[in-house]
Amino acid sequence: MTSVDTARVTPDRPRVQDAEGPGHTHCPYCALQCAMSVTPTAGRAAEVTPEWFPTNRGGLCRKGWTAGELLDHPDRLTTPLIRRDGRLEPCDWDTALDRVVDGIRRAQAAGGPDGVAVFGGGGLTNEKAYQLGKFTRLALGSRLIDYNGRWCMSSAAAAANRSFGLDRGLPFPVTDLSGARAVLLIGANPADTMPPFLQHLDTAAAAGGLIVADPRLSATARHALDGGGVHLRLRPGTDAALALGLLHLVVVTGAADTRYLAARTTGFEDAWAHAAAWLPERTERVTGVSVALLERAVRLLADARDAGAGSYILTARGAEQHADGTSVVGAVIALALALGLPGRPGTGYGTLTGQGNGQGGREHGQKADQLPGYRMITDPDARAHVAAVWGVDPEQIPGPGVSAFELLDSLGQPGGPTAMLLHASNPVVSAPDADRVAERLRALDTLVVADFVLSETAALADVVLPVSQWAEEEGTLTNLEGRVLRRRRSITPPDGARDELWIWHELARRLDRGPENFPTDPRVVFDELARASAGGKADYSAIDWDRLDAGEVLHWPCGSDSPDGTPRLFLDGFATADGRARFVVDAPRTPAEPTDAAFPLLATTGRLLAHYQSGAQTRRVGELAAAEPRMWVQVHPVVARAVGLADGDAARVVSRRGAVEAEVRCDEDMRSDTLFLPFHFAGSGRANLLTLPELDPHSRMPEFKVCAVRLEAA
Ligand code: SF4
């Protein structure tokens, strides 16, 4: 079991005031964006030195500490690859790009502009996310772009937009949490996903006010219990019922903030029409969480609020990655509103963003329905503004595309795209129903993958383009609290690797689509991005690199109305037409795939301390691979024994879509109806061979977090 203490490596190094000066950069992985410096060393992996920054306060997790190993890894791609006679072979850049252009032209000849699709990633810098959206819509003329952040933040984003009129993961600085006496985490396991973040929960944990809702006793839930806090061990897929049950208790125990409700919200009566039915006993029956724990959670949140001691509610992927994820988050927001938490100093609601640039990645136009500045692509005013920045007629900007899974599922189908450019993503491992997606990728005439290692998806490509990595590039990212950060080049990329901005410029030149519109200097791209965002929800127009390099703390929106940035949102009103937050609550539904005699267990997936996302990077780092070398399944020993399995045995987990091979890890603390599988492993260990591509109607988020399975001996 993960140890929280070993995860929180705090360096005994001198502290600097703020790691936003020259020479400092940020971790390549998660949205906490811990600060570090990277130093080349002769004959060894580049040395990573943690730096002080408000989010990490000098701490790094083991992923960050070991990130330097990737920079000169033996698996590093330093020459383009092209498929000949079924095999990927090295070639020069001209040959590779000519092949890409041939594929694009063939696809466009067969299917028009939408014959070519583009897939991006939440790890791309702001400049690349922006440029990729622009390249798709102007150079390719295609509406078909989406990205892997669709599977990360989209439900939280949809719910926040519905209730607050704006989506920023944390609408307050991370450090605001540090003094809070009560924090409810729903579906979040930062002890494994972003360990230095736990520092900000120390006050709550020490006060017994850390409340963790999770189907399993995660490292974070254990941390809460160690401090006298609460673990709400809910049945997978009952998150909305849990939130409405808690909302019910808030109201009937008199913990609702009626003055706040009257002054700052609309729609409480509609929400109560749903929550009234979620009596504590019914909530206990459906979720498996006892009435006593439900009552205790509400009391902790309300007491901390009333004492002015800080009370917060945070969600993450456990709550959001469901086919009703938007409704789940809507119910959690309703709970937070009933308590009067959002938009006030010292209290709040937010969501923990996952990928390194998960926040910026969804603001600048690589999402199917969006233009830069978090504008909707269907909004005529937004189209006119962005078209003016791009120097084109608004009619030239295609309309909305389709969501990530729908896009991948259409590849090579009749009428679907026959070419795809894929950047910063590894859907063969990370997509739901992963083998179905791999089959669609294989059906393409031309699959182009830009990556720095031969990921499982790159291995299927017709052309692989080797790109530079985080410590080799300049750019900006936006962290989980909406703060814009500088990524700085500390290392020279290897000969042969190229920057994506250069690749898109070169493709535009070869396609004769105005290469001058696709500059290669990230600073120039940022300036254009900032202009394109002006007046949008995510307004960056008053930010420039000089301000960032001077160490200014700039959270968006940062435009003409807010030139100093906005660390705390909603203090004077929400971003809705009437300035009030909206209760948006739907009736909870059961998981999209119920259990039955053939598939009697629920599988839920999640992350490990040692790995990041699809594992394409972290599975290649020696220390991390040694810590977690292979796929496993966590199961209650009684469930394992029932099918003749014991700890360490080889097992198969089977769903209606596929089977996963995994080592059995028995755990007395597991629910007896639930299996847990990490999703970082490749081949027959891919958890997403099992998962269900049932999509949320609002966000198009797949049902990653629950599907029906059976366990059997391998
Ligand atoms: Fe920090 Fe996240 Fe990197 Fe770990 S993975 S060092 S928590 S940014």
TrEMBL record:
Residue span(s) of domain 4Fe-4S Mo/W bis-MGD-type: 20-75
Compositional bias annotation for Basic and acidic residues: 10-23
Pfam families: Molybdop_Fe4S4 (PF04879), Molybdopterin (PF00384), Molydop_binding (PF01568)
Region (Disordered): 1-23
Keywords noted in UniProt: 4Fe-4S, Iron, Iron-sulfur, Metal-binding
CDD domains: MopB_CT_Fdh-Nap-like
Entry protein name: Molybdopterin oxidoreductase family protein
Species: Dietzia cinnamea
Native organism taxonomy: Bacteria, Bacillati, Actinomycetota, Actinomycetes, Mycobacteriales
